[in-house]
Amino acid sequence: MNNIVILTGAGISAESGLGTFRDAGGLWAQHRIEDVATPEGFARDPDLVHAFYNARRANAAGARPNAAHHALARLQREWRGSVTLITQNVDDLHEQGGSGDVMHMHGTLAGAVCGQCQHRWPAPQEMATDDTCPACHAPATRPDVVWFGEMPYDMDIIYDRLAMVDIFAAIGTSGQVYPAAGFVQEARRAGAHTVELNLESSGVGGLFDETRLGPASQSVPLWVT
Ligand code: BV8
């Protein structure tokens, strides 16, 4: 009973002041997914997409981890077995909270990638359409985030960990986006105990053995102790 896999979503960063996607007034209420989180939207209007991520990068720069991030970092330090921390979030609050080895399956705001040669480098605070790749000099730079229709990162490693998991916890995610929303099924297949820690029951809430409702800054430290 010592392999833990944790999946976090925007809800774990909500109390740090970062908007979620699907709560009232959330990021998707202000923008159409198709316009700001798809390759087609980026091709259609790169200025809009850079503005969307520049605003989120600025917002994230001022955010600080909350008790939930710190509790997960403590769990990683103190747990006697393996802890795999997977996040759908593109902020760095897990790292700021002391977590190492965070798997950002949807990429990070801190990264930039060249659409031409796939070179990766630390993103500047503000990215612009006419930025050029430091390696191949093509004007094809984009935020290193995974958009809809693109393959999330580290999926092979993630499915390997889920095949051997004993405890699976989903924290602050609405269970609307795949493949992440399907991880609880993989965990059940592996015979794991599954727990959802969320403000309300998610789209896949019925698949969890245990549900702990409430703000992550309260529910996660309680769960970790
Ligand atoms: C893929 C980018 C296949 C970075 C994001 C048609 C064509 C192609 C694909 C599809 C298709 N139809 C369906 C799909 C699959 C698609 C999908 O799932 N669509 C959904 C909308 C149906 N998925 C994909 O496209 C994925 N890729 O399938 O590739 C493939 C196969 C082979 C080869 C190539 C490709 C890629 C998905 C990634 C998309 N990128 N973000 C960014 O801008 O951030 S997704 C976006 O939503 C974020 O990453 C976010 O992490 C993610 C999920 O949202 P949540 O984190 O859950 O946030 P949300 O606001 O929804 O919920 C917050 C929750 O927290 C709520 O439940 C709330 O109650 C709770 N909460 C709030 N406050 C608190 C709290 N909980 C606790 N405490 C609090 N205080």
Automatic annotation (TrEMBL):
Annotated domain remarks: 2 residues (Tyr-53 and Arg-56) present in a large hydrophobic pocket are probably involved in substrate specificity. They are important for desuccinylation activity, but dispensable for deacetylation activity.
Molecular-function annotations in GO: NAD-dependent protein lysine deacetylase activity
Subcellular location: Cytoplasm
Job of this protein: NAD-dependent lysine deacetylase and desuccinylase that specifically removes acetyl and succinyl groups on target proteins. Modulates the activities of several proteins which are inactive in their acylated form.
Lineage, opening ranks: Bacteria, Pseudomonadati, Pseudomonadota, Alphaproteobacteria, Rhodobacterales
UniProt KW Transferase keyword: yes
Catalytic reactions of this protein: N(6)-succinyl-L-lysyl-[protein] + NAD(+) + H2O = 2''-O-succinyl-ADP-D-ribose + nicotinamide + L-lysyl-[protein]; N(6)-acetyl-L-lysyl-[protein] + NAD(+) + H2O = 2''-O-acetyl-ADP-D-ribose + nicotinamide + L-lysyl-[protein]
Organism: Aliisedimentitalea scapharcae
Protein name as catalogued: NAD-dependent protein deacylase
